[in-house]
Structure formats: structure tokens, C-alpha cells
Amino acid sequence: MNEISEHFQCLIIGSGPAGYTAAIYAARANLNPVVYQGIQPGGQLTITTEVENYPGYPEAVMGPDMMVDFEKQAKRMGADIRYGMASEVDFSTHPLQVKIDDEKWVSADAVILATGASAKWLGIPSEEKLNGRGVSACAVCDGFFFKGKEVCIVGAGDTAAEEALYLSKVCSKVHMFIRRDAMRASKVMQQRVFKTKNIQIYWNTEVEEILGEQKTEGVRIVNNKTGEKTVIPVSAYFVAIGHKPNSDFLKGWIDMDETGYVKTQPGSTKTNVDGVFASGDLQDKIYRQAVTAAGSGCMAALDAERYLSALELSTEAESEPAMDSSPN
């Protein structure tokens, strides 16, 4: 039996557009939400530069600044926002139980999951050094900033093909680096890439280094068959080798697909556990945009509100004394 230190009506795990939007809606519904922000408060947008495609910011906005705005609004609505991350859960009983920072257990009547997904990187030091300065894991988010310039992309699956095609429409040339001698993308996507004149494919190629001090200026690549090295000048480096949902702490409790994305019931944010709702990139491997994450955060809060209302009515019905139906 876990020793519970606090109990909440609505607990939101994770921040970013999904978590903060859920907090705004939950607070307005008087659910007294408590938000644990996670290891990266504000989520992936805190390592993004300008955001031009989020409605309501006509002059664009820096990703970290937008997340500050989201947090301020959630706080103004009355959300209790705290540092800390969920490290373990116990959904065997109600109230639901969550362990914070490997230290204390808290319980909640409803839990909204908004822990997001993290982009996979090659792991070379220059990716981190130049992140946000020409290095990105989202071509749809950042490709527009390199309009008319030469860029490169790493990846061989459908996502990489889609992003290469997107970049080909705004950039003068796209250098596509593929580690093997074949793509993993579907045949249709491969054909589209092959037919696009300003996409140049490099087979059996790996990125050894991203060049530049204050911004991305080029890449040094190596052919893993011949060992030949080449420097290619580019203004941006995009990586598209997949995302990993931040769902490890939920394993054994919440239904997921083979890659770890949380499964939700069609048309809702409900999971397989009553009172647990999933939102944002944790359950969305298709769109992965700030605006879609925010929308699902709204949905999760509305689903949680309805669940808690039904739970309250059920509790009240159980507590009412039974009518005496015996004859006088």
C-alpha cells in the first residue's frame, strides 16, 4: 500500500501545449488542477525558435515565450503548476496513484497525461550545440525559415520522405542522407521523392558532423561503404528518424502501440483505465503540431470534467439512504 502525501481532484502530468491547455480548461471547470511540468517544462517548444503557424500570434513568437504565455494563462485561471515529474503510477485502484520524482505518492480522481514525445537524434555533439540555430527535428515547423536555401535531412522512412517533399517546395535544394542502400518509406512515397528534381539522395551515407559556430553552415558526411568524406554547405539540418513517446512510466497500466504511443478510444482522449486521459504527442504520432496538441489538451479536460461529474453523481446516489418500501 502506497503512502499518499496529497490528493487532487484533477492531476495533469506534463506541460507544453497539451498540458497547459488542459490546465486552462480544467481550472475554468473548477476541477482545481495540479500540473507537474516534467523534466522539460513547456515541452519541445522550449527548444524551438520562431513559431509562425500558431493562431493568435500574427508577428510570430519564440517557442519559449509562447510556453511562458500558456503557463501564465493557466496560472491566472487557477491551475496549481509545480516542478516535478511522474516516475511511476499505480492504477490498480481508485483514486489513481502517481509517484512524483521517485519520492512521494499522490492520488487523483482523474489524471490527464500530457508527457509528449521526444525526437530521436543521431547523438552527435553538434546536434545539441546548434539546436535551434539551423538544427531541427521538425521540417514543417522550421522549414519556412530557410526559404530559397539549401538544406539537408536525415532519414529513410515515410516521415523523412514527407518532410523532404515539404522542404523541396520551399528550399532551393534538399540533400537527403540515407544510411543504407534502400529507403524504408512506402513505395508511393519513395517514387514521389525520386521524381522531385531538387531532392538529391545520398545512399550509404552518415552525418559525421554539423559545421558552424553560431549557426548551421554545412555538414560533413561519410560514405559508410567507401569511407569517403564530403563537406556540403547547407543552411539547415533536419533529422527525421522518428520520435519516442515519453510513456515508459506507464507500461503495464496503459495500452500502447508497438512504439509506445498511448492508445485512446476513437473520438476521445479516454484510455483503457477509467479516469485516465491522454493528450498531445503522447498519443499522436501523425500530426505532432502545437495546435493539435493544444486541441487534444482541451478534449482531455472536457473528458475529465464529464468523468468527474458522473463520478460525483454516482457517489451521491450510493450515499443516499434507500427508500423504505415495506408496507405500513
- Please state roughly what percent of the residues sit in beta strands, choosing from under 5%, 5-15%, 15-25%, 25-35%, 35-45% or over 45%: 25-35%
Oligomer: single chain
For this structure, the CATH topology of the largest domain is FAD/NAD(P)-binding domain
Q: What's the CATH H-level superfamily name of the largest domain? A: FAD/NAD(P)-binding domain
What's the helix-strand series?
Answer: EHEEEHEEEEEHEHEHEHEEEEEEEH
End-to-end separation in angstroms reads: 48 Å
Give an overview in words.
The protein is α/β, with parallel strands linked by helices and 328 residues long. The strands form 5 sheets. Strands 1, 2, 5, 6, 7, 8 and 19 form a 7-stranded mixed sheet that branches. A 5-stranded parallel sheet has the order 10-17-11-12-13, with helices on one face. Helix 5 (158-170) links the parallel strand 11 (150-154) and strand 12 (173-177). 27% of the residues lie in helices and 27% in strands. It has 2 domains: 4-118 and 243-319, FAD/NAD(P)-binding domain; 125-239, 3-Layer(bba) Sandwich (FAD/NAD(P)-binding domain), CATH 3.50.50.
